Amino acid sequence: MRVVIVISISSSPSMGRQHRNVTRIQEGLSATREQARKEVEEQQKLKVAEKEQTILAMQ
After folding, report:
1. What is the pLDDT of residues 31-49, one digit of tens each?
2. Which of 2, 6, 9, 40 has the most Cβ atoms closer than 10 angstroms to its Cβ?
3. Could you tell me the sign of the dihedral formed by the alpha carbons of 10, 6, 34, 38, in that order?
4. Phi, psi of 12 (to 5 degrees)
């Protein structure tokens, strides 16, 4: 599963403020990406466990 996040940044009157906004958005995206990665990994682990259990039940 791939998560794509698109954010549009409008121009602000101050470059300093815009830079801070971009930095804050990047930090938020990093946290969101990490959480999404963890969720996908957990889903994959559950799928593997289910398949292993199905295989064991067939033997």
Report:
1. 899 999 999 999 999 999 9
2. 40
3. positive
4. -115, 160
Three-state secondary structure string covering the chain: CCCCCCCCCCCCCCHHHHHHHHHHHHHHHHHHHHHHHHHHHHHHHHHHHHHHHHHHHHC
Domain count within the chain: 1
Domain limits for position 46: 14-59
pTM: 0.57
Asked, for residue 38, whether it belongs to a domain, the answer is yes
Q: How far apart are CA 20 and CA 35, in angstroms?
A: 23
Compute how many other C-beta atoms are within 10 angstroms of the C-beta atom of residue 21. 14
Q: What is the pLDDT of residue 10?
A: 60
Asked whether residue 24 is domain-assigned, the answer is: yes
